[in-house]
Write a sequence for this structure.
């Protein structure tokens, strides 16, 4: 036999739902007390991609100017910058897609 839903427990569960967002922190894998917010982690990831792009651009400029003759390192840095940028774009696309899916949910 199926147990009936008790109204008291449903109301109690809905009272425990937080309606206002709170700043959540995530562990960074370092020390136990070392935590950062999601926004900080996202900002660090974007800055890392930007730094990779700048490093690649600088190596290309050095190669063109004749200061470097190692074409392999230049090509590897360009490929690394391209891959990191493509991964950042895909993560952004997934985040936007998830946001749109959540916003379409009916409450």
């Amino acid at each position: 036999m199926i147990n009936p839903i008790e109204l008291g427990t449903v109301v109690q569960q809905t009272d425990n739902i937080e309606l206002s967002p709170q700043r959540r922190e995530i562990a960074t894998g370092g020390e136990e007390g070392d935590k950062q917010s999601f926004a900080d982690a996202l900002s660090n990831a974007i800055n890392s991609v930007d730094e990779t792009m700048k490093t690649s651009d600088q190596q290309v400029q050095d190669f063109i100017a004749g200061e470097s003759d190692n074409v392999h390192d230049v090509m590897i840095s360009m490929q690394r910058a391209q891959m990191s940028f493509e991964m950042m774009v895909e993560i952004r696309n997934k985040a936007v897609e998830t946001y749109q899916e959540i916003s379409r949910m009916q409450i």
